[in-house]
Amino acid sequence: MASWTGPTDVTGAWIGEGAPTDTGKVQKWIDKAEREIRFRVPDIQTRIDAEAAESPARTDLLELAKDVTVAMVMRVFRNPEGIRQANTTTGPFTDSVTYGGDVPGGLGLTDDELAKLQGARGGAFSIDLIPSTSPFYVGPS
Fold first, then answer.
1. What is the count of structural domains for the chain?
2. Alpha-carbon distance values, 43 to 108, 126, 139 (Å)
3. pLDDT band at residue 25, thresholds of 50, 70 and 90?
4. Residues 1, 65: contact at Cβ < 8 Å?
5. Is 112 exposed, middle or buried (0-12, 13-18, 19+ CB in 10 A)?
6. Within a domain: 53
7. 40, 12 in Cβ contact below 8 A?
């Protein structure tokens, strides 16, 4: 199965120093991330293909899948030891970094990323609390 994302997508999105230079290793982590996405969102490739067939110029879901893949891989490369918190003290100065997420430095999807890939758009329905007899009632749209 073809990869959605390439190593240059990861290094091109990198902010700051320390961008990975081993493209082979980056591609291995991309492959792992994409397998995880396909496992968690089994219909994603079908939806990407359907979107491309419907409108070749429209690639929103594919680009979103790339964005999520890049974010997953970057989290691994930024914190490969999986450290939750790091402190450095030099004399009277202390510097600390806290990494978020359930498994810092781990390869996983956040709840927000998973919802985006699944197409979740919020609630299943809404309730209009304005009675239909009110002069402000707009009616169903």
1. 1
2. 18, 27, 35
3. very high
4. no
5. exposed
6. yes
7. no
